[in-house]
Design brief:
Layout lengths: L10 H12 L5 H22 L12 E7 L4 E6 L6 H8 L6 H9 L24 E9 L8 E5 L5 E5 L7 E8 L9 H12 L5 E7 L5 H12 L26 H11 L8 E7 L5 E7 L12 E6 L2 E5 L13 E5 L15 H25 L1 H21 L1 H7 L4 E4 L4 E3 H7 L7 E5 L6 H9 L5 E2 L5 H11 L4 E4 L5 H5 L7 H15 L5 E5 L8 E5 L1 H12 L13 E6 L3 H9 L6 H19 L4 H19 L2
Parallel strand pairs: 1-7, 10-12, 15-16, 15-17, 18-20
Antiparallel strand pairs: 1-2, 2-6, 3-4, 3-6, 4-5, 8-9, 9-12, 10-11, 13-14, 13-16, 19-20
The structure holds adenosine-5'-triphosphate.
Length: 634
């Protein structure tokens, strides 16, 4: 037997649910009530522009928020459309029946502008019961012959409607009598911060004031002040900026405006490097400004912040569904009226739409980078050190982003030039095809940099933490290109410059070192290096170094193999010391000295590559002392 039916809901049970679960954050009742006021104003303006009613669209529309400490109440007052008794019955008494939706549906055929009404679900108003023991609405509709109405409810399903004796101008006043757990909302500082957070860019002026008790000291002082400064008119400024910069057309915004907006929104004195003004009408509405912040150090990146707005109402910071994770390293604002938000606004519903928006933002960022790299190369190079970590992170996170920006990725060379991968490979094709040499630590690898410069070779600097991963990623995407650290095996590259003369002498030098140094290095090679100052350098095979690094990252794990770095000692037969050693090789009484100096040369070469092992350092110091003694007793 099958049966169909409809589930019944007991309204009495709904309120505790709304109160407790609907909104994750108590503060948001302020946002909901102010956005209702804003909707009410916008509706009124819309009716004027549609010619439905007479009036001045530029009238002084506003939302006043008053704090009444004495009554422990918060009052929200607007001069919007107001409500008739019938509308109160319909929109307020029926939970989840939105007058905003109703209004939009009624006029949507006539409205050619986008829908800028915030309300949607018909639930926002009830968030006021999260903080109130009693809520009172006093409202007067714009309609002719409308009478002021009062609606009062103490949070259950009971309400009372009567004539209002306090509202005699068009608009709505909502009074929240705060419950005992919500007394913090009588503090002006708290309320101001919340309005600032959510409503900074709402399109209607918002003012906040605390009602002074008539005979209080504060009120008396204020009276005194007004008496003494009779001629001075106290200027009251709204909390919000009703025309945020992102709404302006990019061509009308000046650099100074962008910078000022950045400083104001992110409360900083810093200047952004550059920015992207997003302005999309199709296939969805999206406006915003993304700033590339100037970084003082790599780790500051985590502080990025992208604020998401829905019709100028703040929704949340850093929503990763809309803004891809790597873009969260930027700072900025994004206003997307089409966001499929759910009731509590900070949660998104439809993944497909959201991912479209997110893809679009990525594309815009990539386009901007490409255009800067192409058209403003000089400033792009100046920014590069600051933005490179961000871009590399983006590439690692999103291959699509890499594919878009790959030709705009720069590499700084040891000659302080900036070059793309393509240009580097082309330039070095003859000398080392598909091989990129890089420096991971300029100070430590200075010997090698010098060698490179002597041989007119070029290397790029990849010294941030992210570069290790980035190198593997670029190799994977650009096979058979390989990155080699500057101390990697250069024999192929040096071969071209190889001096084939003195072959015999070279063999003798090699044997001399082999005898004295033994197994400490795997291979020996003797070259005629251009610089006489270097007696020898150590080269480490790229593969073996990477394996050894990997092993040290997974310390303690047994890989079943020995990952030793494979070292080659390149001895310079142009060095006067090496020459001298060679000349002494047959002198028996010099054997010990030769061995001492050969080992010392190896250690110095090792030191120039990286720190010595403790036991090696020990020997090095002992030998050094011996050498000094020898010199002194000469
Ligand atoms: N200040 C106001 N002035 C005029 N009408 C109002 C005001 N506040 C609420 N209303 C009416 O009550 C309706 C219900 O408000 P409520 O905040 O519960 O939902 P909403 O704004 O439609 O949607 P949401 O839940 O998304 O905020 C509104 O759609 C509007 O018609």
């Amino acid at each position: 037997m099958s049966q169909k039916g409809s589930i019944s809901i007991h309204t009495e049970n709904i309120f505790p649910i709304i109160k407790k679960w609907l909104y994750s954050d108590k503060d948001i009742f302020i946002r909901e009530l102010i956005s209702n006021g804003c909707d009410a104003v916008n509706k009124h303006k819309k009716l004027i522009s549609l010619g439905e009613i007479a009036g001045d669209k530029e009238e002084d529309y506003k939302i006043n928020v008053y704090i009444d400490k004495e009554k422990s109440a918060l009052i929200f007052e607007d001069n919007g459309i107001g409500m008739t008794e019938e509308e109160v019955q319909k929109y307020i008494n029926q939970v989840a029946f939105s007058g905003a939706e109703d209004f939009f549906n009624k006029y949507k055929d006539k409205m050619n502008e986008e829908n800028d009404i915030i309300g949607h679900f018909g639930l926002g108003f009830y968030s006021s019961f999260m903080v109130s023991k009693k809520v009172q609405i006093d409202t007067l509709s714009y309609k002719e012959d409308a009478k002021p109405v009062r609606w009062v409810s103490e949070g259950g399903t009971e309400y009372e409607i009567s004539d209002s004796d306090t509202r005699n101008t068009r608009g709505t006043t909502i009074t929240l009598f705060l419950d005992d757990d919500s007394k913090e909302f009588v503090e002006e500082y708290t309320v101001r911060n919340i309005i600032d957070k959510y409503c900074s860019f709402l399109p209607v002026n918002i003012y906040l004031d605390t009602i002074k008790e008539e005979n209080s000291e504060e009120a008396k002082n204020e009276n005194e002040e007004t008496k003494t400064e009779e001629n001075e008119v106290k200027e009251i400024t709204p909390i919000n900026d009703t025309h945020p910069l992102w709404l302006k057309s990019p061509k009308d915004c000046t650099d100074e405006e962008y910078k000022e907006f950045y400083r104001k929104v992110f409360k900083t004195f810093d200047e952004p490097l550059f920015w992207i003004h997003l302005n999309v009408d199709y296939p969805f509405n999206l406006k915003g400004i993304l700033y590339f912040p100037k970084l003082n150090n790599e780790f500051e990146l985590i502080e990025g912040k992208v604020k998401l707005y829905n019709n100028q109402v703040f929704v949340a910071d850093n929503i990763k569904e809309v803004i891809p994770e790597f873009l969260l390293l930027l700072k900025g604002v994004i206003d997307c009226p089409d966001l499929p938000l759910n009731v509590s606004r900070s949660f998104l519903q439809n993944d497909r739409d959201v991912s479209k928006i997110s893809k679009h933002i990525v594309k815009k960022v990539a386009d901007k980078l490409k255009s800067l790299a192409k058209n403003e190369r000089e400033s792009y190079e100046k920014f590069w050190d600051d933005i490179q970590v961000f871009i590399k992170f983006g590439c690692l996170k999103d291959e699509g982003f890499y594919d878009k920006v790959k030709d705009s990725i720069l590499f700084k060379t040891i000659n302080s030039e900036y070059i793309t991968l393509k240009d580097y490979l082309e330039k070095c094709k003859e000398k080392h095809e598909n091989k990129i040499f890089y420096v991971s630590d300029e100070d430590q690898q200075s010997q090698y940099i010098k060698l490179f410069k002597d041989y007119d070779l070029d290397a790029v600097i990849l010294d941030s933490t992210i570069d290790n991963h980035f190198i593997s990623f670029v190799e994977f995407k650009n096979q058979p290109v390989r990155f080699n650290r500057i101390d990697a095996d250069l024999s192929d590259v040096l071969k071209d410059n190889k001096d084939e003369s003195n072959k015999e002498g070279k063999e003798e030098i090699e044997n001399l070192f082999k005898e004295s140094v033994g197994e400490r290095v795997k291979t020996y090679s003797v070259e005629s290096l251009k610089s006489e100052d270097t007696s020898a350098i150590i080269l480490v095979s790229e593969e073996s170094r990477r394996m050894a690094e990997m092993k040290s990252q997974f310390a303690g794990m047994d890989f079943g193999m020995n990952f030793e770095e494979e070292k080659t000692l390149v001895i310079n037969d142009n060095s006067p010391i090496v020459k001298k050693l060679l000349s002494l090789k047959d002198k028996d009484d010099k054997k010990d000295d030769i061995s001492l100096i050969c080992n010392q040369i190896v250690d110095i070469a090792l030191l120039a590559n990286k720190e010595l092992e403790p036991s090696e350092l020990d020997d090095f110091i002992k030998r050094n002392n011996k050498l000094m003694n020898m010199v002194i007793s000469l």
